[in-house]
Each structure stands twice: as structure tokens, then as C-alpha cells.
Design a protein that fits this description.
This protein has 196 residues and is of the alpha/beta class. It has one domain: Rossmann fold (3-Layer(aba) Sandwich), CATH 3.40.50.150. It contains 5 helices and 9 strands; from the N terminus they run ββαβαβαβαβαβββ. α2 links the parallel β3 and β4. 39% of the residues are buried.
């Protein structure tokens, strides 16, 4: 039985919206404020990604790095993930995600961390089953994070999702990681890796 939902809050002036597309909160619309580099994963890409992840999402511990609007982590929780850590350097983004978790009755299933992704990983002893990496494009932020994840932050047979600009060179991943799926949508290239 899901916890009672709190009343929906009015969207702030100038806010954009994202929609949860599957699971417990399917159809819920959540607001976020536009920010530099903030580019929520589109419905089309999220639908494809979570079809790929369907066999692994239930009870998974997730990490949403460069979480922005929180679209990926919130979608994961809606579809049955046990927990998600949201990591971003923008405090306003994280306040919105925290508010969404509260509104959805899921504040005990998500934690927000106002830190750079590399700093968060350096300080955290945790391991995750599914990691979402969707940094602002063109800033070469994914490579150091991928290196850190491979150094003891992944559960056995974890899944690592990477979203980048179509024309960007892909960063190197650790030995033993296999590319499970890859697609493009417009200017976006998105990939899912299986790890040992």
C-alpha cells in the first residue's frame, strides 16, 4: 500500500514541467525551474531506457548523478527502485527534487546531495545497482565519474546509463564493462552498460 499523497503544489512562475511516464506515479507532472545546462531526459528516451531496465529496476539502489530536474531518479523510484541518491551542484534543483519526494510520499526513499559528482563519490562508501550519468553536454564531466564508479562503487552486475551529445567522443569505460544498448534521438546519444 502506497503512502498517502500530499496535495499538489502550484508550479512557481516560469517553471517547466516533467511527467513521470510509468509506474506508481505514472502521469504525475512535476515542476522545475530552468537553469544553465539543465536538459531533462525526454519522455521518449526515458521510455526506452526504462524498458531496457525493466528486469533490473525492482528493489534497485540507484544513483542519479548530475540529477538536474531529477527525471531519471524519480522515474526509477516510480517503477519500483528502493532508493535513489540525487547528486547535483545546483541547490535549487535539489530543493525541487526534495519537494517532489515529499509530495509523492517518498521522502524516505530519496536523498539529495548538494555536491560535485566527483566529490560525492570520493566521500561515499556506498554501492549502487543502477547509476544514471547525464551531465551538461560538452564539459567532459562523465569520464572522471566513470573511473570513480569502477573503483568500488558498483554492486555486482550493475547497470550504468550514460547520456551525451551525439557528436561527443565517448569516454573510456573500465575493462569488463559491456555495452548492452545504444540509441540516438536527435542530438542525444544514450547508452546502457552492464558491469561485471
Amino acid at each position: 500500500m502506497s503512502p498517502p499523497r500530499k496535495p499538489r503544489r502550484a508550479a512557481p512562475a516560469g517553471a517547466s514541467q516533467l511527467r513521470i511516464i510509468g509506474g506508481l506515479w505514472r502521469g504525475r507532472k512535476l515542476s522545475f525551474l530552468p537553469a544553465d545546462g539543465l536538459r531533462p531526459t525526454t519522455d521518449r528516451v526515458r521510455e526506452t531506457l526504462f524498458n531496457w531496465l525493466a528486469p533490473m529496476i525492482h528493489d534497485a539502489r540507484c544513483l542519479d548523478l548530475f540529477s538536474g530536474s531529477g527525471a531519471l531518479g524519480l522515474e526509477a523510484l516510480s517503477r519500483g527502485a528502493t532508493h535513489c541518491d540525487f547528486v547535483d551542484t545546483n541547490g535549487a534543483n535539489l530543493r525541487h527534487i526534495s519537494s517532489h519526494l515529499d509530495t509523492l510520499g517518498a521522502s524516505d526513499r530519496g536523498h539529495c546531495h548538494n555536491r560535485a559528482a566527483t566529490d560525492f563519490l570520493a566521500a561515499s562508501p556506498s554501492r549502487w545497482d543502477i547509476v544514471f550519468i547525464d551531465p551538461p553536454f560538452g564539459r567532459e564531466l562523465a569520464a572522471p565519474v566513470l573511473t570513480q564508479l569502477a573503483d568500488g562503487h558498483l554492486a555486482a552486475q550493475a547497470q550504468v546509463y550514460l547520456e551525451c551529445a551525439r557528436q561527443e567522443a565517448l569516454p573510456t569505460v573500465a575493462p569488463g564493462w559491456t555495452l548492452h544498448r545504444e540509441k540516438t534521438a536527435g542530438n542525444v546519444r544514450y547508452l546502457l552498460y552492464h558491469t561485471p
